Each structure stands twice: as C-alpha cells, then as structure tokens.
Amino acid sequence: MTATVSATAAPGVGPAAAVRPAARLSTAKPGGRRHLLSIADLDREGIEEILRLTDMFVEVSERPIPRVPALRGKTVVSLFFEDSTRTRLSFEMAAKRLSADTMSFSVSTSAVKKGESLRDTVETIEAMGIDAIVVRHSAAGVPWQIANWTEGAAVINGGDGWHEHPTQALLDCYTIRQQRGRLDGQRIAIVGDIRHSRVARSDVLAFTALGASVTLVAPPTLLPPTLAGWPVEVSHRLDEVLPSCDVVYLLRLQRERMQEALLPSLREYTATYGLTRQRARLLVPGALIMHPGPVNRGVEIAAEVADQPNSVITRQVRNGVAVRMAVLYLLLGSGVDLGV
Amino acid sequence: MAERERALAPPYGGLFVPRTKVMDPDDVKRAIWRMAHEIIERNHGTDRVVLIGLQTGGVPIGGRLAEAVDSVSGVMVPIGSLDVAFYRDDIGLRPVLPEAATHIPVDLTGKTVVLVDDVLFTGRTVRAALNALSDYGRARAVQLAVMVDRGHRELPIRPDYVGKNLPTRRDEMVDVSEEGVVLGDVMPR
Amino acid sequence: MSDGPFNQAVLIRGGTVVDATGKRVGDVLIRNGVVEAVGLDLDDAIAGAQVLDASGCIVGPGLVDLHSHLREPGREESETVETGARAAALGGYTAVVAMPNTDPPIDCAAVARQVFELGARATCEVAVAGAITVGRAGKLLAPLAEMADLGIRLFTDDGNGVQDARLMRRALEYASALGVTLAQHCEDSSLAAGGHMHEGEWSSRLGIPGQPGEAEELMVMRDLALSRLTRAPIHFLHLSTATSLQMVRVAKQGGARVTAEVAPHHFSLTDAAVASYDTVFKVNPPLRPPADVAAVKAALADGTADAIATDHAPHAQEDKEAPFDQAPPGMLGLETALALAVTELDLPIERLLALLSWQPAAIAGLAGRHGGPIVAGAAANLCVIDPEVTWVVDATRLASRSRNCPYAGRTLTGRVRHTVLRGEPVVIDGEAQR
C-alpha cells in the first residue's frame, strides 16, 4: 500500500513541505477580516514574512510593466483625516500596481466637516463595497475603532496620532535589511521628537523584534513621560552615541514645538541634536542615515548630509511602495486566512 | 481538484500519503533526455530558445532539462524561473503566497519560451504563467513541457512535451521529483 | 401614578436592618411615608399591607449620591431627570445631587428651580448642586445666597476646577456665611491641558496625550490651604490619586474641615483599560494605575474618603463614537455603584452603607430625610440589598438613556432588590415600578 517517497521531493509538493506560517496580522473580531493596526500584532516571524514578500514586489517594481493583476476587482480606500500626501500616494501607488481600484477620501472633501460622525463616515464608505481602508488620523486609536465598526473591510493603520505607523516601520526594516543584510545586532539611534512620533513607536517595536538594539536620543521634553517597558537605551548626547551606531534615524521636528515650551529654539535644537556636517563625521563608514520624511533640511539634518551616499532617505520612499504592496497583498490577495 | 479544494491540499492543509510509484529515477532521467531532444528537433536547434521553470515544482525539472539541452546541442540555453502567484485567478480561494522571486534572465521579445512544470492538471497555473510572461516582452512563441500530464483540464491548454501521460482521479495527488513520480492520496490533517 | 402621597402600607419582611446605630434582624412597617414600626414578627400588625420579601437581604437607609450628571436641561438625548432618577432608584439611591454643568448651567435660582420641579415627580429625591461661578467660567461669583435660599447646600463648578486662587478664596469666604459647602473638581487646567488619560506607562505606549496625577494634587494642596485660610469647609470631588488622598488624610488628622469622595471606577478599573481605545473608558479624572487604585481602596477602608460618589456621566452613543481625544469624558455609575463596592471592597456592609448613604447624606445636607437610623417616625427612604447574588452587567438593559457603561459583561456580587422612596416601593425585585 505504501511506497517510499524520497526526502528530496520537490519543495512544496511532498510530505516534507511544512505548512507555511501565515503572517500574524491582528483580527479585531474572531473570524473577521484581518487588519494591520500595530507592529505589536506581528511577531518576528510575521514581520519577516512581510519582508520576504516585499522582495517579490521589489522585483515587480523593477519590471518594464510594474503591475500584476493580483488584486483585480478589489477596492482600496484611503481615508485620510490628516494631510499626508506621501503616505497616501505610496499606498495608492501600491494598490494600483496590484491592479486594485483606489478611492481617496480626505477630510477637506468629505462630510466630516459638516458634522457627520466618524462612524457614519466609515459605514457609508463600507456600504459602497470596499475591501480595504487605509486610515490616517491625528488621534491615536482611530484605526482600532474603525476596525470594530466595519464588517468586511480590512483596516490598515496609515498612522494614528502619536501612536503607530506600522508600514513605515516595515519599510524601515526592509531598507536596513537591504542595506546591511540583517537587523540582528544592528545598533540603531533614533534621534529627535520621540514623544510625538508614531514612527518612533512603531520602529522601536519592529527594530527590537528583529534583534536590533535601539537608543533614543532626545531632550527629556521630547521623550515620552515614561519609558517603562520600552526595550531601549536613552541618551541626551548625540555626540556620544554616533560613533557606535550602525544606523542613525532622524525624526522630523515640528516647528510648533517651540510654542509648547518643549524647546527654546530651533537653533539650539540643531546645535545639540541636529546631524550637522561636523557631527556626521563621527559616524563609522557605512553607517546609514535615515529619515521618514519630509525632511527639515538645516534643522534635524544638514542639507549636504541628507544627500550623502550613506543617506538612504529616497531608498526608504521607494521601498515604501513595495512594502505596502506586500501588506495589501497579504490582507486582500493571499487568502492565507482560508487555511484549514 | 477543483480550485476551492486546494485549500485542503498540501502544503497548506492535508497530508500526502504515497500509494504507487509510477516512475523511478531512471524513468525520469530518460523522459528528460527525450524531451530535450524533442525541444531541439521541434525548434531546429536552440537558437533563441529560453527555458523557464514555474515555481516551485517546475524549477528543478527545468534545470535538469536545460542541462540535457545544453549537452545535446552543445550550446548553453538561458534558464529562468517564474512565480505566478500574483496572476492566479483563484486568489482568495486558497492560500497563494509566492515561493520565490521571479528571475527572467533575458528580454523575451522575439524568443521562443519553453515553460517547464512538473505536473499539468487543470491548466490554470499555465494560464497565469502566460499572463505573467506577457509583462516581460512579446515572445515569438511559447511552448509547454511537463513531466506528468494527469488530465482534468479546465482550460484549452495542451502540452508540447510530455514526460508521461498519467490517468488519475481528481482527488489523487501526484508527487514529482528527480527521484521519481509517486501517485498518492491527500488525507485531511 | 405619583400624584399625592403614597398611602398604602408596606411591610419589608425577613431582612436584617442595618443603619448607623448597628445591625438587627427585623421587619419594617411603613405607612404614610414614614417608618411606623421596626421589630420581629410584624406580620399581623396590619392587614392589607404590601409585603416586600427581604429574606437574606440587608434593609438599609436609601443610598445618597453626591455626584450625578442628569443632563437636564440641555442634553436630554443623553439623560433626563426622569431616566437618571430611575437609574438611581434601581441602584438603591433615594437621593442624588444633580451636578450643575447643564446647558444652561445651574448658576442661578431660575435654572435650579426648574431642576427641582423636574425632580419632584422623579423616583428619587433630586437635590441640586449650584455652580460656584457664573457659567462655570471661573470669572465671576454666582449668586450663591439666592440658590442657598432654595435649599441648595453644595456648590461646585464640576467639570472644571476653579483655577483662580483668589476667586476660590473669596468663594469660600462668601459661602461660609451661608452654611453651604463648596466642592472642588481638582484639576490644574494648565498642567492637565490636552491630556485625555492618565499620564504614565500606558499613555506613553498608546500615544495618547496624558495628564499627570499632579494636576489633581496641585489643586488639592491649594484648596486645603485656602480652606485653612478661610476656615470654610471644602469637599473634594472624585479624588483619584494616592498623593491626593494622603494629603486629605494628613489634613484631617490636623483637624481640617475637609471631606472627600471617590468614584467606583477609580477603585475598580485601571488605566490599562484604555489600551482598547474604547472611549467608554475615557473619564475625568482619568483611570489611574494599580497603585492609585489600591490607595483609593485604602482611603475608603481607613475613613480618609467619606463617600463613594458615582460621577454618573451619561453620554449619547454618537458623542462617544468619536476619536479618543474628541470623545467627552464620563461613564455611567448609578446602577452599578453598590455592586462594585460589594465586589471590589473588602468592607462589612455597615461600612459600605456609611460610605454610600449616611456620610454622603450629611455632606449634601440631606441627613434629615436620608441615611438616618431606621426607627419609628423616620422618613421611609430605604433600600433592600441582596449582598450575595451575582449578576452580569448588561449595558443594553440599563435604565439610563445612555449606554456608556464600562462594566458591560462583568460579573458583580450584590444587587439592590427593592427601593422605597417616601414610603412608596419604586423598585420591587429589581424592576422599576414607574
């Protein structure tokens, strides 16, 4: 009855093939659609699965016709309550390259200004029959609320308040891995306004999950009130941190922080925490310079430093499209949640 | 298997239980050599021929086939690989995650592409592969080589080179490797 | 239905009577709105009395809430005096103090009179707190004497703390002549500004702007000083931090004229609940970390806190379904306060009733009618509590017009069985009678 089957059966066909681990994307409701709300919902395996899939989409992006029909017939809505042309365009480009239809809904063109409640807006959009909502909102937690209100659509957090920006963290991980081979053991300094930064919160979770060590560098007024439970080191002296880091990640400094008495002046900030030309010389050769954009040239980073060969800021933007293709494909196209 | 039933099949669910060995390693080797000769004969040599293995089962078979073509003709033919996950029409019906990146070594415009796969079944993978290929240029012709044709076609697709025609039931499963071809059953996990 | 006094005799049979004087087994006979007799085997005392079974239950004075937002006038979509009073009766309350942050606010006799009139027909006595400043704006003193003449005994700008120290000093001085008490919502608004939850580990992680416990503590410290300066009494609303309560503890030891209340959610929920981003957990003062929750329980146990007050704050669903930083703070409390106290506090029933009934009655100036000893001739404002029964909170079945109950699905021990207001059973076996 049984015949022997060699152990070298073709991968993915024979009994040796294991069940592929699906990326662990969060499920707000049992049995419901999957969402990407927080890096915290992805363990190391989940992040690596997305990065692996991103490789495929980087290849797609380099083709003469950088488009595949994977999400034909699906509709992705970007629901942006806060201006962010970059993130919105990146998601829309990703959706289009997967052949999905895209709709854009921004607060200035919507009924939200006319007093329609957030829930009504979401339910109206969902009633049009859409498959995914990319949400950007100035308040932390809105993507969670929306995920609770929607029935069928996948919700992707495109940035919520000071809280999280998971696709930014994924593209940052991808970029570091692409440039330095791996995250394990990398020493990463995140510099600047950590307190108000969703990028920093997501990056800390993602970088440390992949084995990097993270040092936050900022004045105390720009750090969260407490860092209890954060797997990070803290420093107030950028000069001491720079010589021993593999990646320096600069955050954008909002100019209105001066009004809140968090800083005396931009000049003082640049002098103490800016990556000036002199300070950039403290970096070891090959250390990466990163920034989530848009860059305040001359504030957190000197213009010529931003254009140095080891600055990968534009590489981050390019990788962002491929990472978002991977996320959209995982949530809408792969069907991995249909496994037995 | 109907497309929706694939969700229950390996590698995503189910377990392959081997039953009958239908080709041994020498049978596989002989079939590859025969197909190599047929490819050279049919195309009057290997000029402008490109071999492309379909991920994942077609890649090792394609590699062996290219080696055979090389040694018969004395010319190195370009060999590539293609993952068709993003082109499948059953996305959402079963887990479809790409196995490996597509690698197309040359511009395909004007070339004769020989697609290589391990098993030809419903024809849907080949249909997806034809779509994918068109994104890499306009080939002069596309041919299809498979180690096993097990029937049950759902699309008007037929192979140009066949290692073995193997009548099967729809619910059976065929395992192909260089070590041979095994017919078996899928047991639920 | 409620026209005229309730004349039928009522017999509460088989319970254990608990009041400030102690604990004894006995039946309670009520007629014409007053307790006629308390004793064993009163069964035959009167024919035709309506009998309320109290076997296995505690018969106590009706509960008194120092802190209810009844939302009328102005926000009738979230609560009315009628629905709020029904929720109160179901929670065992026979009197509640309606907070003045209505629209228009209760900052003059005219609005106060309107709320008193609405309360006259309600299923619990509705006392009113007046505003300290005009429009609760913290600029000009409200007509305290005019409102005191209507019987108002408690004044507060609740929702806001009185920020200006000089104004608060004048208010305390002025009020001292009227025999009324000022109650402070302790929050230094410049330090708390923009904060939507407790500032700490959870706010840092969740990216929600926080307000530190010190925003409350600064005003507690200031008002203790102002009370000392003016020799006027001060009542602190919903204290929520260990340091606030410690300051009150020390001040009381020094003889200060200070009373303090705490809210049920501050001894039964922590700031970790906010991790769901469910706005039902947004409240002001915010939910605090476990150490503060423990301090609130300790303050109730050692007498630092004088009362459990609900801070019942109904909000319409559509208002709560907003981003966390836009949603209004507040949660329901009247129908769950007693059960939370029984479930969460390790205190004997007579201590719980002190915190829920006679001590708040004294602070609110209601001691003549509520919370007094259950003896012949006393006003028949009573509640009958089953301290053993467990039940699961179903937010959809609350009497309040709103649904912002943070305890939905939670299993609690202890429930009000009957409530008697001026001799009338307004709640029988957990069902509102009107």
Textual characterization of the structure:
The complex is a heterotrimer of chains A (340), B (189) and C (434). Chain A folds into two domains: 26-165 and 320-331, Aspartate/ornithine carbamoyltransferase (Rossmann fold, 3-Layer(aba) Sandwich), CATH 3.40.50; 166-316, 3-Layer(aba) Sandwich (Rossmann fold), CATH 3.40.50.1370. Helices cover 34% and strands 15% of the residues of chain A. Chain A has helices at 44-61, 85-97, 118-127, 142-149, 166-180, 198-209, 238-241, 266-273, 277-280, 303-306, 313-333; strands at 26-27, 34-35, 75-80, 101-106, 132-137, 154-160, 187-191, 213-217, 232-235, 247-250, 288-290. In chain A, α4 links the parallel β5 and β6. The two termini of chain A are 27 Å apart. The relative contact order of chain A is 0.15. Chain B is α/β, with parallel strands linked by helices and 189 residues long. Chain B has a domain at 44-171: Rossmann fold. Chain B has three helices and eight strands; from the N terminus they run βαβαββαββββ. In chain B, α1 crosses α2. The radius of gyration of chain B is 16 Å and the shape is globular. Mean pLDDT of chain B is 87; it is low at 1-7. Chain C has a domain at 63-363: Metal-dependent hydrolases (TIM Barrel), CATH 3.20.20.140. Chain C contains 13 helices and 21 strands. Chain C is of the alpha/beta class. Chain C has helices spanning 81-90, 109-120, 144-148, 165-176, 189-192, 201-206, 214-230, 242-253, 265-268, 290-302, 317-320, 337-344, 349-363, and strands at residues 10-13, 16-19, 22-25, 27-31, 34-39, 50-53, 58-61, 63-68, 93-98, 125-130, 154-155, 181-184, 197-198, 210-211, 234-236, 258-262, 307-308, 382-392, 411-421, 424-428, 431-432. The interface between A and C is medium-sized, with 26 and 22 residues.
